[in-house]
Specification:
heterodimer, A: about 400 residues, alpha/beta, two-stranded antiparallel sheet, about 45% helix, about 10% strand, B: about 260 residues, Rossmann fold, eight-stranded mixed β-sheet, 9 helices, about 20% strand
């Protein structure tokens, strides 16, 4: 959910799209239009048959305008009744106390009739450390404690005391309770911390790799994840992994460039313009991860690369999957198989792409690409551990208002 | 300087630089750690038996995960003094983060030290004079904020590492992450752990030395320390940076020597 009006010379005149970006660039009246446009697009995706619609949390930035994804998710839960509501997620180390996440996610699960997919990110350093002031070297420890508290709050039927290092609560008693038992499916978005892999494997959570470096660069990381899965002795269900990918579909490859290139470049050049000092504060990444050599995607190399890429480089390098339905289908199938992916987070709105183009790309994908990608993993088609389980008899809120108003 | 190895009662091990003879002086280093050259310590060793312990997370011994908050840091400081076998009339000194820790130690156990010398200590916050965010600075910005002479400062901070060598770079990143990651526990995001409300307990004679051109913790903080500490004397080094003990060693040493030597 980027702010679509960053000036042409944004990179020259501002040091960062995140943390200390001037709020003079934001226009609340235009924001009114923008929020509704983006929410409409997500509802449109629901109407086209996508399995889920997704939101996430970022702070003090023009890259993603959802400090509170739960507010957007609540709006979507009222206007849709079919797709999963994927909140990927709440940065649980930032909530004080984190029982707030247990409560709000339970509310979303109940309102949506069991459609919640719950994400627990550690959060980017920009959000977690620089905007929300968490001490880098203690962030992960606080995250694990928050996770323990939330899961216990959902599991325990009676009030209990929680004596944590960061949270002391004499009475933990989550009201309401989530519909999904024992809890909604948990997705852990990561940027390549190796501790996160083991955490996902141990708990049977989905590991979601969210990067803009595309699937070619993502392969090295996901290979590392699958090695950990294999070493653990657990099954290799592709639904253990998800991947975020920018996708642009048009009638032909040439048309895709003509329609979408400028908006994708807006995103890479301006929305990823993060001041390097905010990208990797000492203590945020563990020593083990630094030693593994997996540099943070916002670090210098990528930063320089991202902001200077051309359309051809973005497409050839696999940062963006773009082209005709046939091109996109072929590339996606290759990506799904080579990275072993069960779930995909597809970004159709990107940068300052206008609504008609977003809808065009989304619709072409739903009609001419998605059906062929449904059965890539026939041997795992009954694995429902990593997806939501809505109530059959849930309220369909689009209908209730009209019915009760006699319309 | 000689190297000692100590182990505290809690089981944390560390390296201690040691030099000179005379009354004991324990010096706590700043967030950058102990450097290859420590000119102030060598200079003070002419008059004192100087001990400079390396903080957990700064050397090869580990143990930093045991230190989570300000109280842990201050108690570890006293554990080090105990492990060195020093008596109750110890003199403490500290630079920047080390000064913050030494002052906290003095507030907690205010009968256990004879005198305290602080060089541009961290630990206070003034809304009118926000301290630049050390943790978001790129190396070249850091050098500019810390040193009066950035060229020399750069050599000093990096220890002459060749950043073209991937292995050396990797090692530098790991060391830096451990050191500043540890420092962040008491300095991030605002270097204020409410020391100000405890400084009334700092009854030992205290010297506060400050560089007049300190760009990291600017001069108004020196005045604030003088106001808050009951028996503080302030000494300003003309043109001095935040790294004044390294860039203007002699005037800093003379002030500390005079202060610690008089009754």
């Amino acid at each position: 959910m980027p702010w679509p009006h960053l000036p042409e010379d944004f990179r020259q005149t501002h040091r960062s799209v995140w943390v200390d970006i001037s709020s003079k660039l934001y226009d609340p009246a235009e924001g009114n239009r923008v929020y509704h446009e983006y929410m409409d697009q997500l509802e449109y995706a629901d109407s086209l048959g996508f399995d889920g619609i997704g939101v996430n949390e970022h702070h003090q930035n023009a890259y993603g305008l959802m400090p509170s994804p739960n507010i957007i998710a609540a709006g979507l839960a009222r206007r849709t009744s079919r797709a999963a509501i994927c909140v990927i997620g709440n940065s649980i180390a930032l909530y004080n106390p984190p029982i707030r996440v247990a409560e709000e996610f339970a509310m979303l699960d109940v309102i949506s009739g069991g459609r919640l997919v719950a994400g627990f990110p550690v959060g980017t350093p920009m959000d977690t450390n620089f905007c929300y002031g968490q001490i880098p070297a203690l962030t992960r420890d606080k995250y694990y404690e928050a996770h323990e508290l939330i899961m216990k709050a959902w599991r325990e039927p009676e009030p209990f005391a929680f004596d944590g290092k960061y949270n002391q609560l004499r009475y933990v008693n989550c009201w309401p309770r989530p519909i999904q038992k024992p809890h909604p499916p948990i997705y852990i978005p990561g940027g390549g911390s190796i501790e996160t892999w083991d955490f996902c494997v141990e708990n049977d959570y989905n590991y979601s790799y969210l990067s803009y470096a595309g699937y070619k660069a993502g392969k090295a990381l996901l290979d590392g994840y699958w090695e950990r899965v294999a070493a653990s002795g657990k099954d290799e269900s592709p639904y253990r992994a998800a991947f975020a990918q920018v996708v642009c579909v048009a009638d032909t490859d040439a048309e895709a460039e003509k329609l979408y290139a400028e908006h994708v470049l807006y995103f890479y050049n301006r929305c990823l313009h993060v001041y390097l000092g905010f990208a990797d504060p000492p203590g945020y990444r563990t020593i083990k991860t630094i030693q593994s050599g997996k540099l943070n995607q916002f670090r210098a190399e990528n930063q320089r690369l991202f902001t200077s890429l051309t359309w051809k480089e973005l497409v050839d390098g696999g940062y963006v999957i773009a082209g005709s339905p046939a091109t996109v289908r072929e590339r996606m199938e290759h990506m799904i198989k080579s990275l072993r992916l069960g779930s995909l987070f597809l970004l159709f709105q990107i940068g300052n792409m206008p609504d008609d183009k977003v809808r065009n790309s989304t619709r072409l994908f739903a009609e001419r690409v998605m059906p062929q990608l449904r059965d890539v993993w026939p041997e795992w088609k009954n694995d429902d551990r990593f997806w939501c389980k809505p109530l059959e008899s849930r309220v369909r809120p689009e209908g209730t208002f009209a019915a009760r108003s006699g319309r | 300087m000689r190297e000692l190895r100590i182990e505290t009662r809690r089981g944390l091990k560390s390296r201690v630089l040691e030099a000179g003879q005379g009354p004991a002086l324990v010096f706590f280093h700043g967030a950058g750690g102990l450097f290859r050259e420590e000119p102030l310590l060598e200079r003070l060793a002419r008059s004192f038996h100087v001990f400079a312990p390396e903080w957990p997370g700064y050397g090869a011994d580990g143990g930093e995960e045991k230190l989570e908050d300000m109280l842990d840091f201050a108690l570890h400081g006293w554990d080090v003094v105990d492990a060195l076998g020093l008596d109750a009339e110890v003199r403490l000194a500290g630079h920047s983060m080390g000064g913050m820790i030494a002052a906290e130690m003095a507030c907690i156990a205010n009968r256990s030290l004879a005198k305290l010398a602080l060089i541009a200590p961290a630990g206070l916050w003034l809304d009118a004079h926000p301290i630049p965010d050390l943790f978001s600075m790129l190396p070249f910005e850091l050098v500019g904020a810390l040193f009066a002479d950035p060229k020399n400062g750069e050599k000093f901070l990096t220890g002459g590492i060749d950043f073209g060598n991937p292995e050396a770079l990797q090692q530098f990143l790991v060391t830096n992450a451990r050191r500043l990651g540890t420092a962040g526990k008491i300095l991030f995001p605002i270097p204020n752990r409410r020391l100000a409300k405890r400084l009334y307990r700092l009854v030992a004679p205290t010297l506060v030395v400050w560089g007049s051109a300190d760009k990291l913790i600017p001069l108004p903080y020196a005045e604030r320390w003088r106001q808050l500490v009951p028996h503080a004397r302030l000494s300003i080094v003309d043109g001095g940076s935040h790294m004044v003990p390294y860039e203007q060693t002699e005037p800093v040493a003379v002030e500390i020597e005079r202060f610690l030597s008089t009754a």
